[in-house]
Each structure stands twice: as structure tokens, then as C-alpha cells.
Amino acid sequence: MTLVLVKLGGSLITDKTRRECLDRKTLVRLCKEIHSARKKKKFDLVVGHGGGGFPHYPAHKYKVKQGIQNKDSLKGFVLTNDAAARLNRVVVKELMGAGENAVSVQPSAWLLAENGKIKKTFTGQFAQYLKNGFLPVPYGDAVLDSKRGVTIVSTEQILGELAVKLGAKRLIVVTNTKGVFTADPLKDKNAKFISLIERKAFPKFRNMLKGSHGTDVTGGMLHKVEELVELAGKGVECSIISGKEKGNLEKALLGKKAGTIIR
């Protein structure tokens, strides 16, 4: 069965400019769209999500991504890890409420990083979960790092790893904007929409992309697009779509064109 990966953006399901402010209405609707699409078309699915205003604040304050630097680094790690996990439980609960057999899969329990990049993983449980009909739900997390002590891995990194290991063909990144723009459309009214980014032509777009709106320790839009371009080079078609438009995620899951395509 075809495997599709979905990432629900942290800036979409939370207000990333405020601490631990959940947009429950949007989250509930997206979960319902996921379930509706799965009733209309059979496909395996993994849903990951960003942390938004939950883990990003302690991660930024304690510079968790840079590693263990002082005695407060351990506190920063556990606060970030806890905040990410608490948001994950909310996402899993809403997916269950929509009718999905969703199960939380904590990244810090199955992967090890090295200098901020995923180095070792045990992904066997994902294949088994999918085989048995579950919907696994990983998320961006604070994890152990063999060089730095600790670090943060983004949801895109995690889903990219799963795409390669599990043979996924599509990754849909759901954000609070239509797709990729030449600048942040929340700040710049002259920002232009980019409908297609081909890997070989990506360098010309690099300087246009700006960091995302609000606190984001995983690097903003540029970082996300860079990771998706790299993933596209491995045969996974990626798209960045708006989750603010009602029915848009369901449309994308059913294979209809939406947002920015990266291939």
C-alpha cells in the first residue's frame, strides 16, 4: 500500500508567537480531513508535527540545539522534551477523536543524532505499526547527540528519515501559508508565491527565502525547504500547502494539486 507522510506545522496548530497557545479548532479540523481522506482512499499514513509555541521557547532559552554547554543545559533539555511530548499527546488525542488509531512515537527513544543530524535509528516499529493498521505520530524533539550531548531534530528530518527507510513516495507539509513565497507573506505584502521548486534550480530561490514567523529554533522556512529539496533528490515528491484553507489537506491526501511542489 502507498505510504504518505504528513507534517502538521507548529505555526499552524499553535500560535508560535505565544507560549503554549494551541489552535485546537484548526487541529480538530485537520484531523477530521485526514480521517475523511482515509475513508475515501486507502493508503498508509504517518503524521508528524512541529512543536510551535510549546518546545521552541525552552529550546531557544537554553540553546538546546547547540548541546550541553553548562549546568542549565540539562534543564533545558528536559523542559523541551516535556513540552514537545505534551503537545504530541494533544495531537494524538484529536486524531483518535476523529476516528484514527493514532499512536505516539517519541523520537528521543528511537534515534541518536551526531552534530545535529540523525545518525542512528531504529525504525522497525513504524513498519510494524503500519502493518497492523495504526497511524504513527512522531514529532520534532530534543534528542541525545553523540558529539554535542543533546540537540534538536526537526520534524522534516524525522519524516525524511522515515521516507527513505519506509519507501514513502510523498510528503505533505501543512503550514499556515499557501506554500513557499519569496518572502514571509505575513510580513511582506509583496511576497510572491512559488508554485514549483525543482531541485536543480533551488540555488536561485535560496536567497529569497526568509525565516518563519515567530520563534523557531529549527531554522524557519529556508531550513525546511532545504531539507525537502534534499529529500526530493531521493525520489520523494514533497509539497507545502496551506492548512488554513478548509479541505486543502484532504485534497492533497487524495492526490490533487495544492501548494508548492518540490521535486
What percent of residues are in strands?
Answer: 15-25%
Number of beta strands: 14
Domains, number: 1
Describe the biggest sheet?
6 strands, mixed
What percentage of residues falls in helices of 4 or more residues?
25-40%
Segments where pLDDT lies below 50 for 5+ residues?
none
- CATH fold-type name: Carbamate kinase
Query: Which architecture name does CATH use?
Result: 3-Layer(aba) Sandwich
Mean pLDDT: 91
Order of helices and strands: EHHEHHEEEHEEEHEEEEHHEHE
Shape: globular
CATH superfamily: Acetylglutamate kinase-like
Kindly name the structural category.
alpha/beta
How far apart, in Å, are the first and last alpha carbons?
A: 22 Å
In spatial order, strands of the major sheet run 2-1-9-13-14-12
Number of helices: 9
Query: What is the CA-atom radius of gyration, in angstroms?
Result: 17 Å
CATH class: Alpha Beta
Structure, described:
It is a single chain. The protein is of the alpha/beta class. The protein has a single domain (3-262), classed as Carbamate kinase (3-Layer(aba) Sandwich). Helix content is 37%, strand content 22%. The chain contains 9 helices and 14 strands. It has helices spanning 10-13, 24-40, 56-61, 72-98, 124-131, 155-166, 203-206, 220-232, 248-253; strands at residues 3-8, 44-49, 102-104, 111-114, 117-121, 135-137, 141-145, 149-153, 170-175, 180-181, 193-194, 196-197, 237-242, 260-262.
